[in-house]
Design a protein that fits this description.
This protein is mainly alpha-helical. Helix content is 53%, strand content 3%. The chain contains 19 helices and six strands. The protein has helices spanning 32-68, 82-87, 98-108, 118-124, 136-148, 208-216, 235-239, 241-256, 265-276, 288-295, 299-313, 323-330, 336-345, 355-366, 372-382, 392-403, 411-417, 427-436, 438-484, and strands at residues 188-191, 224-227, 321-322, 352-353, 390-391, 424-425. Strands 1-2 form a two-stranded antiparallel ribbon. The chain has a two-stranded antiparallel sheet with strand order 3-4. Helix 1 (32-68) crosses helix 4 (118-124), helix 11 (299-313) crosses helix 14 (355-366) and helix 13 crosses helix 19 (438-484).
């Protein structure tokens, strides 16, 4: 049996799993009794409340029209003053919080991309955020900074710093926009202490309309709003808004009694991409803020790795990759070298690889292995006759030796590398293939390390055997000397 090495796996505490694996899913299970109550109450309550909402709209609309009459609304927008300012509070909404957000949509006409009935939106003078506009982020930050430092010309700005909706089980990464000005902020937390949760609107769960109907069907909905003491940034936090954002988030998390995670809106984008790749949506969650900072990855890099993961995971419905799927994707049999590579990816040791482990493994283990020196060494291992090209026979022979498998068919793998069907592999083709399939580069280095380990074990065994023989010889000489005496 081939000896296995004992080595320290590259496990960083900062890359361990988050406290909440998926903050973007909300499963509301309604009992039959709850459904019956909602139906009967809804028959009476929904029409009555719809009428009241209509009345509110009828009153609010003319107020919005009067407030915006003859007021400049495009170009260099100036703050409202006098009677206009007393009519409408200033609100900046970058994300909506569940059904209360739906009510804001009804009352103010503010929609995700910043479009909606002009009257309501204009009277609020919000800082509109567009995720499609590449300049929107910079313009939004500049506008927030200008208003926050206006010396009272602009009213306070209300910001939802998470930038997306969660299931309220944790606080995710705060966007830095509200903290860049470096001025004091006042945290505000909301709680919904209700037996039946009908206000949590997330990426996976009931639709906004369903939640609105369920909420309108309740006799009442409890909402607690707590204004926490203002937080003043330190000099270091003024220079580094990310630190200020973390401080405020920790204060709010402590008040709510929930953990914090480094998920962000980019995780939601990856969830959507996972769905497009026919993977389960939750497969795309990686805690993007932490992964991107620790591994120096951009969203496009992680998206590319998601596509690679989808290619491997297609046979297991995209949830978690077993060593059988891993070996099948690499078109190789299970061997000690492949098992060691798989173990390096499998960070929690459960025998499978999820997308988060895959991203970390490819970035930490495989990409660094794709150096010119490593690839040259690996190529030379295959090129046994040193003619600067690898034939099918050389390729098969080397893999049989590397993997410890006598009967192995590598024709498919050879054809993938031999892109021009020339019946041999040059270094340029070898390099291009391995750079696009980084798992192989680490597999080769794992094999080299295993060979070195076995060689060392052999040397140690020989030394041990030699020492044992020397000891026996010494004992025999000692016995012989005693007999002679």
């Amino acid at each position: 049996m081939t000896p296995r090495r004992v080595f320290a796996l590259p496990r960083q505490q900062s890359l361990f799993l988050p406290a909440v694996l998926n903050p973007f899913v909300q499963e509301v299970k309604l009992a039959k009794a709850d459904i019956i109550k909602c139906v009967f109450r809804g028959i009476f309550l929904v029409p009555i409340r719809a009428i009241f909402l209509t009345l509110v709209l009828m009153v609010t609309w003319p107020v919005a029209v009067i407030t915006t009459f003859l007021h400049p609304l495009k170009g260099a927008v100036t703050p409202m003053t006098g009677w206009r300012r007393s009519l409408v509070p200033q609100v900046h909404v970058s994300a909506c919080d569940g059904v209360p957000g739906e009510v804001l949509l009804l009352l103010h006409g503010l929609q995700g991309g910043g479009e909606g009935p002009a009257g309501f939106v204009r009277c609020l003078q919000p800082v509109l955020v567009s995720r499609q506009d590449p300049d929107s982020r910079k313009n939004t930050i500049m506008e927030i900074d200008s208003r926050a430092k206006s010396g009272g010309s602009w009213p306070q700005i209300l910001v939802f710093p998470e930038g997306t909706c969660t299931n309220r089980s944790c606080l995710i990464t705060f966007k830095q926009g509200a903290f860049i000005p470096g001025v004091p902020v006042q945290p505000v937390v909301m709680r919904y202490p209700n037996r039946l949760d009908t206000v949590t609107w997330t990426w996976q769960g009931f639709s906004s309309r369903t939640l609105l109907l369920l909420t309108l069907s309740q006799l009442y909905t409890n909402v607690e709003i707590e204004f926490l003491p203002p937080v003043t940034p330190t000099e270091e936090e003024k220079k580094r808004p990310v630190l200020f954002a973390r401080t405020v988030r920790n204060v709010m998390a402590q008040a709510l009694g929930v953990p914090v995670t480094d998920h962000t809106y980019e995780d939601c984008r990856l969830m959507s991409s996972a769905g497009e790749l026919t993977l389960p949506m939750e497969a795309g969650l990686v805690e993007f803020t932490k992964i991107s900072q620790k591994l120096d990855l951009k969203w496009d890099n992680v998206k590319k790795e998601l596509e690679g993961f989808a290619a491997v995971a297609c046979s297991c419905k995209g949830r978690r990759i077993s060593i059988q799927e891993f070996a099948s994707f690499l078109k190789l049999p299970i061997s000690p070298a492949l098992q060691e590579l798989f173990a390096l990816f499998d960070r929690d040791g459960d025998g499978t690889i999820d997308f988060r482990e895959y991203v970390i493994g490819v970035t930490i283990l495989c990409r660094p292995a794709n150096t010119e020196e490593v690839l040259r060494t690996a190529f030379q291992l295959f090129d046994t006759d040193e003619d600067q090209r690898i034939t099918h026979e050389e390729f098969s022979s080397m893999l049989r030796s590397a993997l410890g498998v006598c009967d192995i068919n590598v024709s498919k793998l050879f054809k993938e590398i031999d892109t021009d069907s020339s019946e041999f592999i040059t270094f340029s083709k070898f390099q291009a293939f391995v750079l696009n399939h980084p798992e192989y580069a680490k597999l080769f280095t794992t094999y080299l390390e295993l060979q070195r380990y076995q060689a060392l074990q052999g040397v140690e065994s020989e030394l041990s055997s030699t020492n044992h023989v020397s000891s026996e010889d010494n004992q025999e000489e000692s016995i012989s000397d005693k007999k002679d005496d």
